[in-house]
Amino acid sequence: MSNKLNDNKIFEMLLNQIKNNKTYHAYLFEIADSKSRMTTAINFAKMLFCKEKNIEKLNCDKCDICNIIDNNNYSELKIIEPEGLIIKKEQIVDLKADFNKLAVNNNKKVYIINNCEKLNNNAANSLLKFLEEPEDGIIAILLTNNIYQVLKTITSRCQIIKMNNIFKEERMLNKISNLLVLDQLNNNDFLSDERLSKTIDMIFKFLNYLEKNQQRTIVEIDNLWNNNILTKEELVACYDIMILIYKDVLNYMINIKINVFDEYKNEIDKLSVFNTKEKVIEKIKILLYLKDKIKYNANNNLLMDKLVIEFSEV
Ligand SMILES: [Zn+2]
Q: What's the pTM?
């Protein structure tokens, strides 16, 4: 989950800058999700520092520098977070002093300022001087969840990298795995990004097929369900996902709002076409009823047949 930076053009662009020694003095990343925000900054810092230049993979895990950074102990990397609601001038002054102490060696130095929209005026002025007269080898990584809240004098001095869309899917998967609170699922990889994402794709395909083909779906269940679901706990989670999907279909029909599956708007839209609100409510009831049976029922295949039949009769 932590290395999505790996998968996109932004990563390639940053990598090329590093390879060609053409990095900027300051970067401003806009990332809504707070966890992804810091992970991205740390990963980028590792790319800048890595001794092995093993940066194609991002997960160097080999060189001592990357390890020290992972342990939050690298003196050439400073991280500033808001203290309470603001970032104070003293924090920027301390940062400069810390870097001055290190100035003897000519190593690269990087500082990360999280939530840089929270710099108070004095702190921002102090930072601006730093940004206006960049010293060689010092790179700023500024982070925000909303670029429009960052002072223009700061944004104008940074290379701006907007990553909100990239993390949208990750946010959706996080949301879903948080909703599937089943202890039994913690022991396997069902909630890994890759498997969860595949499972959701599969479920949408199944439901759309079912809505369209009704009872005829029974002969296709094996193909549609792929035998990907290994345990009862996973099947329960699939029912939970289906319930969440139909709740979103209902949301979508009532107020064009999708709570969970915003990345699947087209699929939700298709499902809504087959239904009325009353039908959707009926289907949610069926799913809840059958989900309850999973724990006590020996035969999962029979349950899936039952799902198809009951849905077709709504
Ligand atoms: Zn490394």
A: 0.58
